Amino acid sequence: MGILHIIGGAVSILGALFLLLASIGLIRMPDVYNRMQTGTKATTFGTIMFLGGIGIATPSMATKLIILVLFIVLTNPVSSHVLARAAHFAGVPLADRSVTDKLAEHRAKEGVQ
After folding, report:
1. Do 91 and 41 touch, CB atoms closer than 8 A?
2. Can you give the residue range of the structural domain that contains 106?
3. Does position 46 have pLDDT exceeding 90, yes or no?
4. Cα atoms in the Cβ-side hemisphere of radius 13 Å centred on 83
5. What is the average per-residue pLDDT within 93-108?
6. Helix 102-110 and helix 62-89: axis angle, to 10°?
7. Are 95 and 31 in contact (CB under 8 A)?
8. Which DSSP symbol is given to 31?
């Protein structure tokens, strides 16, 4: 086992740790919007690190892994944003501890129902 396998394994384990923290965040967050934020940021970063570790350990797969990372970086935040807006328009309430609702303020300012 070479040094690249050890480094790749360490990076993959770190990515898996971020994925674990994201799953814990999904359980601990108080509302849909906070859960989406946790699910998007931590899982995107964790997946990138996990795939990066695989790429370090097996450089022959680097091209495929780069394509996967680009796909995740482009689609995960966009899909999460669309789901959060759909939940907001459907009337899913914010947590009691939420301080502000910028989308509702913007819609009220624009006169949109």
Report:
1. no
2. 3-110
3. yes
4. 14
5. 81
6. 60
7. yes
8. S
